[in-house]
Design brief:
This protein has about 260 residues and is an alpha/beta fold. The N terminus and C terminus are likely disordered. The relative contact order is 0.18. Bound molecules: adenosine-5'-triphosphate and the ligand Nc1ccn([C@H]2C[C@H](O)[C@@H](COP(=O)(O)O)O2)c(=O)n1. The ligand Nc1ccn([C@H]2C[C@H](O)[C@@H](COP(=O)(O)O)O2)c(=O)n1 binds next to helix 4 and helix 5. Monomer. Pfam families: ADK. Its cofactor is Mg(2+).
């Protein structure tokens, strides 16, 4: 069997030699979807921005990382980002930095949400994420702690259409009591104003009521890889290797992305 990369290359060749696409499609920045066959495989969902011949930077590839507070998202993202060629962006961390930024017009608003365990409006969070993505040399992003509710999801879908594509969602499943214990321990040294019993009660509530429906939304789209977060960090890391290799192989090709299914 040919490797996905080789299949992809032959698909690219077949496109440039035989596919005629209207010029005005190339003129637009919006992505277009192409489909074709290579051998016994159907290659689809090739997203193109700009001209194919100019080899422009394609859509950002995104893996969302979700789970309860303390489920281990940040710990694992830090471990895997280098090995698998991602940049890790933590929505919570970006918000904490913005809250501290001198002269930020959003500082107080963010602080209120962090203390309450409620979710900051998407316009703020999404623009912080977008700024990091645009300034990064990377094209593949692990976005940790986003989208946390329907407002996040809807805002992202509008703002990122034609800019980023969600390839997969990693869901760290971990019992609430374990999550709370971990955050309380972290609170002894983290300096985080929300690692305390009162904020955690609200954060767990927000996770159950607002974030779980988002995970279910992506599960219905077949994008969710669920990970048992209630194990040692090393066991969790090992269990991620295989799914991440698959993402890397199938989704994160240099200029464009593809999906291959057997005929
Ligand atoms: N598998 C694990 N077993 C035990 N402790 C862990 C594990 N993973 C992470 N921790 C510890 O639990 C705490 C929370 O981990 P981490 O910050 O990765 O969680 P998170 O899901 O990113 O949390 P949050 O969403 O609140 O930022 C940290 O102190 C971390 O060292
Ligand atoms: N999409 C997001 C992500 C985070 N926040 C706020 C609210 C969270 O309680 C807090 C901490 O996030 P964490 O570091 O636990 O991922 O940040 C938000 O409003 N919207």
């Amino acid at each position: 069997m040919q490797s996905p990369r080789l299949l992809y290359r032959s698909f690219q060749k077949s496109l440039s030699s035989s596919t005629t696409l209207p010029c005005n499609l190339f003129a637009k920045k919006k992505p277009i979807t192409l489909q074709g066959r290579v051998g016994n495989y159907l290659v689809r969902d090739v997203s193109v921005t700009g001209t194919m011949t100019e080899n422009k930077k394609s859509l950002y590839n995104v893996v969302f990382v979700l789970g309860g507070p303390g489920a281990g998202k940040g710990t694992q993202c830090e471990k895997i980002q280098e090995t698998f060629g991602f940049q890790h962006l933590s929505a919570g961390e970006l918000l904490r930095q913005e809250r501290q930024a001198p002269g930020s017009q959003y500082g107080e608003e963010i602080e209120g949400h962090l203390k309450n365990g409620s979710i900051v409006p998407v316009a703020i969070t999404c623009s912080l994420l977008r700024r990091e993505m645009d300034n990064s040399p990377k094209n593949n992003f692990l976005i940790d702690g986003f989208p946390r509710n329907k407002d996040n999801l809807d805002g992202w879908n509008i703002a990122m259409e034609g800019v980023a594509k969600v390839r997969a969602v990693l869901f760290f499943n971990c019992p609430d009591d374990v999550c709370v214990d971990r955050c309380m321990n972290r609170g002894l040294t983290s300096g985080r104003t929300d690692d305390n019993a009162e904020s955690l009660k609200k954060r767990i509530e927000t996770y159950r009521n607002s974030t779980m429906p988002i995970i279910e939304h992506y599960r219905a789209l077949n994008l969710v890889t669920e990970v048992d977060g209630n194990r040692s960090p090393e066991q969790v890391r090992l269990s991620l290797t295989c799914p991440l290799r698959n993402f890397q192989q199938f989704f994160f090709l240099p200029e464009q992305a593809m999906c291959i299914t057997e005929r």
